[in-house]
């Protein structure tokens, strides 16, 4: 147990400790790193060993320096070392980690399987296969999860056998595992394997365990589940609301408007889901009806737009607006709705259908003191599209309100998808936005060019924007430009230049961009990061609650320092400093997540520092609180709270807290709502 003592020392462990001693001297700024090392150090506590592992993990030291701790006599130390090796992700440590799949302690074996999944190197496959037959259900579940992270369609054949597993925990893991394995299923052979794997999941939609059913439906919502269409339709009336919600999402994915007979049958099911008493199911039903176009669907959407959660009303209006099918009564009522989101979509729907009839209302909104109303006005003006509307939009680009410029780019991107022949009417705005010295605006401008990668006339402007976006504050535009060139299979000289970028995520993307053009390159090695100073790791009690007073009500979250000590500590420090007071919730995805805490308010800002990822076995269930990133080890201040389970995020982001109370508030949050005050309650 922590605080006990260890008597086990090896030459390898002494070398590790010698390096740690040198590192401590260097990071402390002392004069010499040649201090003699005691080859027979005094007895150490387990707490000291765990602190050493934490320091090695945080500096992302080579795995070889952590591996000696895997032979520690204490289970807690071995488990902590495994987690560190998974987070470091050094492929050279696969053999050392895999050896602990034979550890006598079950918890150690579980962590070994999980760590191999985090490392994600193809070499993990061979040692993991025997673990699929472990007598321990959790080991089997973690083994299939780890294997699936490789995304290999060849592993889809495992589904048939594991669908009959005696453990609901294992059966529940299989749907998402199939979705991960299918991510690269491109050949006819791979697609045939996917079909067989999907069919193998059929009995799990009738599983006696609620979690196994909803997790299976969730996995099926991420693949082509058409072989199970009938079973998925049946699952939309399951007694468990989460099963109904994910089954509705899965059905919406496989609806094909060109197959009229099947679509008509699915329509009836989706219309029923849109009227479900559970708001999660209702939103999924409305969202899925986007692919259906009958008169009954229009009637159902107008009905959905007349009541229920604001996000569902807004989504129904969105679909109706694109089709010009929102009735005058529906629009009129929505324009008086208390939700600014609903009013904004209603204004856009009116502009989309009636053009200049909505101009005066749009101008009133543009001059409003409410930021979300102003953003809605920009959206409406794009839909109006007259010379008078263009004049107002030109003033937006000449102004200093970056959020409106970002909104304009998003609307132009959407307009391009619907009217690709009208690019020229909007290209001037995009060119202007690429010159705006703001990360969010530039990134959005690149996004407005999505789908136009074949147009090489944009190359020079994008390269110019890239070179004008130096420094850590402009990482997102650089990433966006490189990803655009990756799809274009051009930009080799820029990508070669980017392999020497100061930011690891940019260097990694540069390599991917070059590979798309059949060029091979390696990113410049990252400089060793500085360790977290011990004084930065605050003592956080396991009962510590942070209270978020929002404009919709109070949310309380409980810190998880055991799973994410550095992230939890960093978050608490920011809370105590008042950092979050007044920050907005800038991203809301119904039945998924709310995200906020960005000082820029658009998803591109940070707190001036980053914290390492602390991936763990904490699942992304509803109420999980994570930290947003823009690449590995880039978490800073943007927290997100899950409003529904999202198992595809497990092991990909840091869970540092869990919702204690306030899910009703989480579901009510809209874009633009604020955290009035954040405080440590206890």
How does this model look, in words?
There is one protein chain. By secondary structure, the protein is of the alpha+beta class. Among the domains are: 146 residues, Alpha Horseshoe (Leucine-rich Repeat Variant); 147 residues, Cyclophilin. Helices cover 51% and strands 7% of the residues. It has an eight-stranded antiparallel sheet. It has a two-stranded antiparallel sheet with strand order 1-2. β3 and β4 form a beta hairpin. The N terminus is likely disordered.
Short key terms for the protein model shown above:
682 residues; 7% strand; 51% helix; disordered N terminus; single chain; Cyclophilin
Q: Oligomeric state of the chains?
A: single chain
Task: Bin the strand percentage.
Answer: 5-15%
Structure class: alpha+beta
Shape: globular
Shape-level CATH architecture of one domain: Beta Barrel
Regarding CATH, which class of one domain? Answer: Mainly Beta
> Could you give the order of strands across the largest sheet?
5-6-8-7-9-4-3-10
Largest sheet descriptor: 8 strands, antiparallel
Write the layout of secondary structure elements.
Layout: E1 5-6, H1 11-28, E2 44-45, H2 46-58, H3 75-88, H4 94-99, H5 106-119, H6 125-128, H7 137-148, H8 159-162, H9 168-181, H10 188-200, H11 210-220, H12 229-235, H13 241-254, H14 260-274, H15 279-288, H16 295-304, H17 310-323, H18 328-335, H19 340-354, H20 359-366, H21 371-384, H22 387-398, H23 402-418, H24 427-434, H25 439-447, H26 459-467, H27 475-488, H28 492-498, H29 504-516, E3 545-550, E4 553-559, H30 565-577, E5 585-589, E6 593-596, E7 624-627, E8 639-642, E9 654-661, H31 663-668, E10 675-680
Antiparallel strand pairs: 1-2, 3-4, 3-10, 4-9, 5-6, 6-8, 7-8, 7-9
Helix pairs in contact: 2-3, 3-5, 5-7, 7-9, 9-11, 11-13, 12-13, 13-14, 13-15, 14-15, 15-17, 16-17, 17-19, 18-19, 19-21, 20-21, 21-22, 21-23, 23-25, 24-25, 25-27, 26-27, 27-29, 28-29
């Amino acid at each position: 147990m922590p605080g006990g003592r260890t008597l086990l020392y090896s030459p390898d462990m002494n070398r590790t400790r010698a390096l740690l001693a040198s590192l401590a001297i260097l990071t402390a700024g002392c004069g010499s790193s040649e201090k003699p090392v005691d080859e027979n150090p005094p007895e150490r506590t387990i707490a000291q060993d765990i602190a050493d592992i934490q320091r090695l993990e945080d500096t992302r030291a080579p795995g070889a320096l952590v591996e000696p701790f895997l032979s520690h006599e204490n289970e807690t130390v071995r488990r902590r070392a495994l987690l560190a090796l998974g987070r470091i992700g050094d492929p050279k440590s696969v053999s050392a980690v895999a050896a602990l799949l034979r550890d006598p302690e079950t918890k150690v074996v579980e962590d070994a399987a999980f760590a191999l999944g985090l490392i994600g190197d193809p070499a993990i496959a061979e040692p993991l296969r025997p673990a699929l037959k472990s007598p321990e259900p959790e080991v089997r579940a973690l083994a299939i999860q780890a294997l699936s992270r490789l995304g290999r369609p060849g592993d889809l054949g495992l589904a048939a056998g594991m669908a009959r597993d005696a453990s609901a925990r294992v059966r529940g893991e299989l749907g998402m595992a199939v979705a991960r394995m299918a991510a690269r299923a491109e050949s006819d052979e791979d697609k045939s394997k996917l079909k067989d794997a999907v069919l193998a999941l059929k009995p799990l939609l009738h599983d006696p365990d609620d979690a196994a059913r909803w997790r299976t439906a969730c996995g099926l919502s991420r693949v082509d589940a058409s072989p199970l269409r009938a079973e998925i339709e049946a699952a939309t009336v399951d007694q468990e609301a989460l099963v109904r919600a994910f089954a509705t999402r899965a059905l919406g994915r496989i609806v094909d408007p060109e197959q009229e007979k099947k679509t008509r049958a699915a329509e009836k099911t989706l219309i029923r889901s849109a009227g479900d008493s559970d708001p999660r199911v209702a939103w999924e039903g409305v969202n899925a009806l986007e692919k259906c176009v009958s008169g009954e669907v229009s009637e159902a959407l107008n009905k959905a737009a007349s009541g229920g959660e604001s996000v569902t009303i807004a989504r129904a209006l969105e679909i109706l607006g694109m089709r010009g099918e929102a009735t005058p009564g529906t629009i009129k009522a929505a324009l008086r709705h208390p939700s600014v989101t609903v009013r904004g979509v209603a204004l856009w729907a009116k502009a989309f259908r009636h053009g200049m009839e909505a101009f005066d209302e749009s101008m009133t909104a543009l001059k409003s003191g409410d930021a979300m109303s102003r953003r809605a006005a920009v959206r409406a003006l794009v839909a109006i599209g007259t010379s008078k509307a263009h004049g107002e939009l030109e003033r937006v680009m000449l102004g200093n309100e970056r959020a409106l410029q970002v909104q304009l780019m998003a609307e132009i991107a959407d307009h391009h998808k619907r009217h690709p022949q009208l690019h020229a009417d909007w290209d001037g705005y995009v060119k202007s936005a690429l010159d705006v010295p703001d990360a969010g605006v530039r990134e959005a401008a690149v996004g407005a060019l999505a789908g136009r990668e074949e147009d090489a006339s944009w190359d020079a402007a994008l390269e110019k924007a890239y070179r004008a976006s130096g420094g850590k504050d402009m990482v997102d535009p650089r990433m966006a430009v490189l990803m655009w060139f990756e799809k274009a299979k051009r930009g080799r000289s820029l990508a070669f230049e980017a392999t020497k970028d100061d930011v690891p995520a940019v260097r990694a993307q540069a390599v991917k961009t070059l590979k798309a053009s059949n060029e091979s390159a390696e990113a410049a090695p990252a400089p060793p990061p500085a360790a977290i100073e011990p004084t930065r790791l605050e003592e956080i009690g396991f009962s510590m609650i942070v209270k978020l007073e929002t404009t919709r009500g109070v949310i309380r979250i409980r810190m998880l320092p055991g799973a994410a000590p550095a992230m939890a500590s960093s978050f608490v420090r920011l809370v105590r400093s008042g950092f979050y007071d007044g920050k907005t919730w800038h991203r809301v995805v119904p039945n998924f997540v709310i995200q906020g805490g960005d000082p820029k308010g658009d998803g591109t800002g940070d707190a001036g520092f980053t914290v390492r990822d602390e991936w763990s076995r904490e699942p992304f269930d509803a109420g999980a609180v994570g930290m947003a990133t823009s690449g590995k080890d880039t978490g800073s201040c943007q927290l997100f709270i899950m409003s529904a389970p999202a198992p595809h995020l497990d092991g990909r982001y840091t869970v540092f807290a869990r919702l204690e109370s306030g899910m009703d508030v989480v579901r009510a949050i809209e874009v633009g709502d604020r955290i009035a005050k954040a405080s440590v309650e206890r």
